[in-house]
């Protein structure tokens, strides 16, 4: 039925083909000309009309193809809507971005699908509902929206309603204002996200839920983990996390953190931002450091400016391009190959890949040096 409607729309509501006028403007005008000029005009007009008539005769076949294309676009859009929900934090509560529905109502479409849920959290300077700054119209836009150069996170992470597609929860929060306001707001938004994730676990305790967040979005996720039960999150990717090591330590030691697999991805290109945050945001204690400036025990840290890490990724089949800029806050997801790696880490064999990536981030022990000589110990044996 939808195909029939598309064909009717293409045939009945498209303008009829028009004959292109020849040099003599009309057939009659051509006849009033002298000899060959009139004949030339008639021939040009006949050829144009014959070509147009031919195109018109083939219009039904073209309409069928266009109809299939329309159906495909509607099918993809509908499947995307089934697989992707948009939710925002308003204070410590969350509501559906489009309808204002509660999390329980908004989650219903994705919980009907047998697919893992990937939670996506943006960072600084975004604000849901504000046209120039809304993440749902930018990085969280639908996978079929290819008008922008910046990658669509849902598209890049394999979120769609087709076979093998993941479900997505695009989580927005008010991250405008000063860095101090946004830093404080991220903690409140983390409480709202925790409520959403607890709602998922209550309704479907076995559902696999992953999370990925950039910059202050990583702080939102780390805060949420403090309020979550065991098993609420499976795998977590933090991109250039704008938070202190103490926050991550608390998250790792939480009930949810002890079971979840976490990976922090950073790069020297983000160093200027890490330094600024280090100087602007108060620390919990004197030794506290921004995550990008320290390797926290228990948290695998993948450094995309480390040649050893890049070569290790290439060796396991996930090459990521080398840095192109000295300063870039977004390189952890704009770098070619980065999103393909994250999609795989959050995909069906992500647990195995996470273990492989974690191993290659471990510092290599210095090779032991053989002693050139040794003295006998008093009890007659040397240390071994």
In brief:
The protein is 42% helix and 11% strand. With 384 residues, it is of the alpha/beta class.
Description:
With 384 residues, the chain is of the alpha/beta class. It has two domains: 2-57, no CATH class; 82-361, Alpha/Beta hydrolase fold, catalytic domain (Rossmann fold, 3-Layer(aba) Sandwich). The protein is 42% helix and 11% strand. It contains 15 helices and eight strands. The chain has helices at 2-12, 27-32, 36-57, 59-83, 103-106, 108-111, 153-156, 179-203, 216-225, 245-252, 271-280, 307-315, 331-334, 338-345, 350-361, and strands at residues 84-90, 93-96, 117-121, 167-172, 209-214, 235-239, 261-266, 300-303. An eight-stranded mixed beta sheet has the order 2-1-4-3-5-6-7-8, with helices on both faces. Strand 3, helix 7 and strand 4 form a beta-alpha-beta unit. Helix 8 crosses helix 9 (216-225). The model is unreliable at 1-79 and 370-384 (pLDDT under 50).
